[in-house]
Amino acid sequence: MRQLAAEGIERQPIAVCVVGAGAIGQTVIDALREGAVPDVGLTAVLTSRGSAEETDAALHTADIVVEAATVDAARTLLPDVVKRGKDIIVCSCGVFAERGFDVESFGAGPGRVLLPTGAIGGFDILAAAARAGTRDACLTHTTIKRPNALGIEERLNAQREVFRGTAREAALAFPRTSNSSVALALATLGLDRVEVVVVADPDATSTRHIVEWASPLGRYKLAFENSIDPTSSGRTSAITAWSVVEVLAALSQGVGPGAVVLGPPRRQ
After folding, report:
1. Which of 20, 59, 233, 240 is most exposed, with minimal Cβ within 10 Å?
2. pTM to 2 decimals?
């Protein structure tokens, strides 16, 4: 049997459907149209104005779906896409905080649910530490944003802590600004064990994140300061969309750093 040389094998681009054309979705759309990701091509863009027939056709032809819309859209899309055997990258991670929404069921496939790390990093070492055991571990994620990005209309003269609770509670209280907390929790200790602190800072010109981990394996403190996407009303870090693009780039080689893959719960 004659073998083809590697350069003689035609590779079909991975077909991507992007749902949502806001701050995150539009950046992903533009990056794919400009050829920023080899072997990955944009085949469809869906918005809330699309018909059921258009949605069905777009999902049928796609290999991967990028949800960059809302929690409501994610709630509807997730079961449909996974049952079709397609992978879905979920940006509206707050959907997983809803009681009754079975996170573990999505680990059974046939499609995979992938969460971009978004505005923070360090998931490699934190997930590794969690895999070693979580019984004596603790993890805190502090987010510092402009008051208007958090829906606070009151005029503040200084920083104010406006929330302290679990990642699940944070996602329910701030569904559009807690996606990184949810992804971090699902990659490590779970939604009900990761502590989230939200601080409103009237002088903030960027979004800051501080992630602190402690366990018998070690102590880690990670800090991030992100530019704000100018089209997001202060809610979204500019790096977030590019974390989605990085996941797409990794998918052509198999999922690598830059994604949280939902699956069975970690051992205690």
Report:
1. 233
2. 0.88
